[in-house]
Amino acid sequence: AAAVMITFGAVLGKVSALQLLIIAFLEIIFFSVNEMIGISELKVVDIGGSMFVHTFGAYFGLAVSLALASRTRVARKPGSHKEGSVYHSDLFAMIGSFADCRLPFTF
């Protein structure tokens, strides 16, 4: 579930809710296969699974973002409303960054 949230951070605001659901479903399958190969075949020791979660979530998010960007670049006009920032989104990002930097171990 954490890998899916990391991927959502890469594509949030660029995809619809249905696309997010499809991405989450596919990512859970690919993440499970990736973790199984890493643990059983490569004998990787990852206490807590943080290495698998963060690296897979980040790279899967980048891959989805790249795939969607190449497909939607042709379909949308430059200056689309989804490309700009929104006040409440920027405010929540700032508050979350401050809380994470100021209180990293309390959440």
Please supply descriptive tags for the structure shown above.
107 residues, mainly alpha, 4 helices
Overview of this protein structure:
It is a single chain. This protein is an all-alpha fold. It has helices at 2-11, 17-41, 50-75, 87-102. The longest helix is centred in the middle third of the chain and has 26 residues, at 50-75. The protein is flat. The two termini are 17 Å apart.
Question: What topology emerges from the helices and strands here?
Answer:
Elements (H helix, E strand, L loop, with lengths): L1 H10 L5 H25 L8 H26 L11 H16 L5
Provide a compact summary of the structure.
The chain is mostly helical and 107 residues long. The protein contains 4 helices and no strands.
Tell me the β content. Answer: under 5%
Number of strands: 0
Compute the CA-based radius of gyration.
16 Å
Tally of helical segments: 4
Low-confidence stretches: none
How many angstroms separate the termini?
Answer: 17 Å
Helical amount: over 70%
Largest sheet: none
Instruction: Give the H and E element order.
Output: HHHH
Mean pLDDT: 79
Coarse shape: flat
Structural class: mainly alpha
